[in-house]
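REVIEWER CHECKLIST
Item 1: Sequence provided? yes
Item 2: Single chain? yes
Item 3: Sequence as submitted:
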Amino acid sequence: MTIADRIRVKNVRVLSDSHYILKTTTFEWRRADGAWQTQTRETYDRGSGATLLPYNLARRTVVLVRQFRYPAFVSGCDNLLIEAAAGLLDNETPELRIRAEVEEETGYRLGEVTKIFEAFMSPGAITEKLHFFVAEYEPRMRVGSGGGLASEGEEIEVLELPIDQALAMIADGRIADAKTILLLQYAALNIFR
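Item 4: Structure as written out by the authors:
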């Protein structure tokens, strides 16, 4: 039996379509014992995205960005967030979008990018699937200052950090972004061994 055999959608209502789409859905779910149970869930659809960790193996460094995130602020975070460059796909392939996003945010024009996995970041409420990438960088690949697009409200600081420092920043809470933690841990296990 597939998931499609176990669900009957009864009602979908758009609650907000201001920036992204927030819906409430009522459905019946067929439980393992065969009984149908009515449930209601809200989903926030912002589209899928991609994220990438640039690394320099010889120098043992990574490139991250620091920026203001309003949802983190209202959740009690009184610091700018340190993150891996990321962005929504906007109807492009993950590879094309992440290359453009990294250049826009960090100023680096990368060569080959390697996809390492895909993951749902908060599947209980958000439909977004992230495509995770890593790529080697060299200082000569920096073609601009980065910083993001002011027209999109971005004011991004570019950080080049030793991998050991970035990992320590996870442990002491200075890096609290899940996608960035996943990428740094991947790098520690598979790149900077």
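Item 5: Key structural point noted by reviewer: The mean pLDDT is 96.
Item 6: Recommendation: ____
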